[in-house]
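Loading example: each entry is read as three labelled lines plus one structure line.
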Amino acid sequence: MEDKILISVKNLKKYFSRGKDIVHAVEDVSFNIRRGETLGLVGESGSGKSTVARLIIRLIDTDGGNIIFDGVDITTLSEKALKPFRRRMQIVFQDPASSLNPQMTVGTIIKEQFLIHKLGTKQEQEKWVEELLEKVGIDPSFKDAYPHEFSGGQQQRICIARAIALRSEFIICDEPLSSLDVSIQAQIIKLLEDLQKELGLTYLFISHDLAVVKHLSDSIAVMYLGKLVEFSNKKDLFSNPLHPYTITLLSSVPTIKGEEKEVELKGEPPSPINPPEGCPFNPRCPKKEDICERETPILEEICEGHFVACHIVQR
Amino acid sequence: MDLLLSIDNLNVHFYRSEGVLKAVDGISYNLYKGEVLGIVGESGSGKSVSVLSIVRLLPANGKIVDGSISFDGKDILKLSMNELQDIRGKDIGFVFQDPMSSLNPVITVGQQVMEPLLWHNLCSREEAYKRAKNMLGMVGIPFPEERMKEYPFQFSGGMRQRVMIAIALICNPKLLIADEPTTSLDVTTQAQIIRLLKNMRSELDMSVILITHNLALTSNFCDRLIIMYASNMMETGGTKDVLNTPSHPYTRFLLDAVPDIEVEKELVPIPGTIPDLINPPEGCKFHPRCPMSMDICRAEKPPLFPVGDGHYSACWLCGRE
Amino acid sequence: MGNKKRIGRSYWSNIWEKFKRNKLAVFGLIFVCILILLGISAPWLAPYPYDEVHYEAVWTPPCREFLAGTDQLGRDIFSRLLYSLRNAIIVGLGAQSLIVVIGLTLGLIAGFYGGKTDNILMRIVDIVYSFPSYLLNIILVLVLGRGYFSIFVAIAATGWAGMARLVRGQTLSTKSRDFVEAARASGAGNNRIMFRYILPNIIGPVIYSIFSGIPGVMLVESGLSLIGLGVRPPMPSWGLMISEGTGQFLYNPYMLLAPAGMLVLTILSFNFVAFGLRDALSARE
């Protein structure tokens, strides 16, 4: 059972200091991702989900907690020791145009992966580049073109090609669809799905678009103000959301059927500077009680595989 | 119903170094008093340009080359700049996508809400102050008296958007144009803003044009829809009709290609990309991506064929029935 | 697939296309190239050696023999102009090169590594920046003695600070861009990131800075030779010629007009190129 878990995140913490203010970006977040599955990480602005992504892939360092990749604690490894792990995990960013070096041809950008890890001869590298472009649906003869010569959707495909170039096992997708047109999004979603099936990839899919997350994910983690408030498999989360925030969130998503079902949400999205005492959601929670202002709830398993951090639910 | 806005065969071009970009290619529609019209399209569809043309708010290299626009009985294209500025902000209010760049960072929020009243000489300064305070309260900003003295940076994104709405509505306009008003906001804030717009619409009994790329957003709010693609109108009709019985292939594909949180379905991506409007395809602009395209689609641009009560589709397939 | 105009149209060919559209900038560039060619070939093009005196033809107005006339010692102004041009170009390009080498290196290091390194370097930049540069130039030339080398050093000693600041700022803003993060996530080392990811993307503003800096350098050199601290006479320099010409204006106005005119033309051309570059680099359509 244990060896099926690829990524394990334990008690992750990250604070940023802005002058004398401290931004509590990530506060004690723990979850596991099994090999081959997609974990959808949802939350609104200030939830800390993008920070979690950058912590896992070690673009920034933690202020506490551990990141365990395939059984190895990579939290404090040096860059040199980390390099083989970097091969095994990659990231696709939100804005494909700024993710590609404007001074390099598309072929060179992908080839960089091989150069960095010293893989293959020159001919092999060229061949791999062409195969990768083909796999993501880009005509390989365009490998000498520059990023700005492609459309947004094509640029994102190139980013995906780069991400799978090293045969990585784990790919973080940080809002990969947000800058793309609606009719292009479906193409990229399909590409990600096909690649996952073909290459046995594990995804951490971060998005604020719940409909897309529902489509792609196996499990879902909901974050609010740096904390993990609910974690469950997809079916249970959408059919039986437990945390008041999750319930509000799901009811706010517009649907084609368009029935009015919003749960009234008071107030404004909070700032991660000076988070409230106790439960982070308490200022806006319709079910709030006294204990919520005093004690921070801990994530507990309510029913099989369904975790919630809420005093009211835990009773 | 009374007619408020009538657009007939509007053509807008942009003059770029690479050539002429035909951003809006002959669209026509009417808007009635009290109606909420949703204009849905992706980037390059011409949705924003066509609506900004209503008050001739185009960038320097844009030009209305053909067509007519009639607002509240006035011929917009014949108005002088003074007459046009009289309409802007007073009879037509605007809410744009990014509230941070739409608000002046060095002027207080209260001042900015008062300005439309003062610019149009609608009342005295004291009266404007009272109305601004009132309006800020109506759009859901707590403690309006204090917050009027604050600057935009002291407001959150959702609050700023509410301020934008206050500015747009302060002169009690006949028409509110909201161009992607919730795109940069969180989902929960988006729901609040849409609810606010709905309430204000019935309070002030005005018409609304909502421009968005999100079909689901229109479902609860709009009475009628126009689906635009690459400078043309593809389909138009009552919201329920268009969403439940879409007629145009593009609308159908759009509905199939976007995941819905309530409906489990197989996503069907639309192949290809949005066409280049400097050298647009001949005939129907969607034909290069349409699996049902016929010879006539490649040759001639289809007109809007009626497919139901008030429901039209610009597709040769519908012309046959 | 793909709505592209031409394969392999790099970032730079785009910039070049935009630059070409600016007629003033293109004219400036042509003129700059002509000037550089003239300057380099001064020893062969000049009809007379710059120090050859013609006592029988002092203060001659322009004629067929002396294209720009002669000065108070009968020296051919045209030839002296050519040699001054050569001078100015050597100083302009030479000092700028030194500025670029020092400023680019320090700015890149400060911006990339940040932290204490950045702090220390930037405080040094602040100190150098706040020196009255002209004064420092004078002192350095007096200390090092006259000649090309000391002028280079004098100008570069204060000039590098502006370049370092520019490069540091550019490095900082490029460092946080997604494609650099992506490279880091792939395991790219510091050197690779600095030279293949950051440097090529900050070169644009650096080139602009070079082009707009050359006129400034030329003016500094002219300023130094105006007060007699430039290159040793009889080697001519615009500043020197202007200084002499001012005094002798009544006897032969061309002594002043010719070098002043050349100085203005040269600076204008470099500036036109700089403006064109700036517009081409920043233009968004």
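The interface with chain A takes residues 42-43, 156-159, 186-192, 194-195, 213-217, 219-220, 243, 253-255, 257-263, 267-271, 273-274 of chain B (CB under 8 Å).
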